[in-house]
Amino acid sequence: MKSHVEVVIVGGGISGIGAAIRLRELGIEDFVILEKADSLGGTWRANTYPGCACDVPSGLYSYSFAANAEWTRLFAEQPEIRDYIDSTAAAHGIDQHVHFGVEMRDARWDHEQSVWRLDTSDGSITARFLIAASGPWNEPLTPDIAGLSTFDGEVFHSSQWNHDYDLTGKRVAVVGTGASAVQFVPRIVSQVSALHLYQRTAQWVLPKPDHYVPRIARSVMRHVPGAHKVLRSIEYGIMEALGFGFRNPWVLRLVQKLGSAQLRIQVRDRRLRKVLTPDYTLGCKRLLMSNTYYPALCQPNVDVHPAAVTSIRGNTVIGADGTESEVDAIIFGTGFHILDMPIATKVFDGEGRSLDEHWKGSPQAYLGSAVSGFPNAFILLGPSLGTGHTSAFMILEAQLDYVTQAISHARTHNWQTIDVRPAVQAAFNAQVQDALGTTVYNAGGCESYFFDVNGRNSFNWPWSSGAMRRRLHDFDPNAYNDTITAERTS
Length: 490
Description:
The protein has helices at 14-25, 43-46, 78-91, 179-188, 215-223, 227-247, 249-266, 270-275, 293-297, 355-359, 392-412, 422-436, 440-443, 465-473, 482-485, and strands spanning 4-10, 31-35, 98-100, 104-110, 115-120, 123-132, 154-157, 171-175, 194-198, 205-206, 288-289, 302-305, 309-313, 316-319, 324-326, 329-332, 347-348, 377-379. The protein is an alpha/beta fold. The strands form four sheets. Strands 1, 2, 3, 4, 5, 6, 17 and 18 form an eight-stranded mixed beta sheet that branches. It has a five-stranded parallel beta sheet with strand order 7-16-8-9-12, with no helix packed on it. Strands 13-14-15 form a three-stranded antiparallel beta sheet, with no helix packed on it. The chain contains 15 helices and 18 strands. The relative contact order is 0.14. The protein has two domains: 4-139 and 337-485, FAD/NAD(P)-binding domain, CATH 3.50.50; 148-224 and 250-332, FAD/NAD(P)-binding domain (3-Layer(bba) Sandwich), CATH 3.50.50.60.
């Protein structure tokens, strides 16, 4: 690995790969991607649990500059998505820039030299620009449960699925009922002898309009000019109509009738139906879709416990409702460190304060991309950019437009450093918080991972996807601190 590069990208998922492709389009070749794993793919490399799939239509789930017309399902599954990521990276020559098995231990801003100094598992490196592309779905979250360390059965998180462990005939506890559990529970229910599902909060689950895409349809997408673009536009329009509901909760209260109808049709047991009926507005938590989740929970070998797990004693899982279940394995479907992302403890400003110390539990960035006090650094899929309805690729590409413009401006104007003004960042985040008040995220009547430890929604974007693209379309140098950025190289 070179001792100095112009740009270091941390993470080789869709964010890091997208950043690398855009840098090459700018003519920048002096960059590296540090990827702690042995292959690309990020969350789509790590998550291999049964049933893993995207929850937005496949037509939207690709880079616009590498639109994929070959998806075999309307909602693509993990193996196909990973193949797409790998082939796109290879087609754009990204592999030659990646250092696999290299983990960033910390990154520190050097005021005097105006460079980032990174300590990695493969030595030290300096860089003019740092792009944090590890994403919010990177580090699995496993709850601290009393007695868990003494459990002598099999334990794993859904994002670290143990494919060597045979679930056949096993008694299994599933902790958590989020997006992952909704996908893997139906796939394993027929294998296990007993499945105990621990649900703290009921989830709204809408019907999933998934189906196999016939070869002839894929051929049309490939060969008929404009056909795939039209499909993407239609899918985008449908998702944006849903997005209108996130900003106007009364719309989602109408949409949730679909979830209620599916629940009534698929769950005949009144007691179980009551347990599975949410008491908040659809969209307040992450939107879930499945045609098989409710039928899986109706199987005779399934017990749904409407409670958190409080402790484990030997091989017994004890719920907050007092129920006890003897199990052979525990699978956590408890999500990720979304707003307490681990990378925030590894990136330090010029005074030695970490990003985590700056945030004090409430992540903030200007346009979700730049943090005041951390010059020449950018975050992809950062705070206040999450939506409940659109593709991560759309968000990412809007950000990449902005970040690459910022880097290009700094290079063109010989700026040594580029640091967003504190007042600009504060004003933007005040706007976000004010606008979030009437959205379903804040007003839907639930608790979710959208809220940080201080009770602040640090995850969601309160406006439309179109507004996001417009806001990130043009880089404004006046938003950046001239007392620092005005320093010129010779």
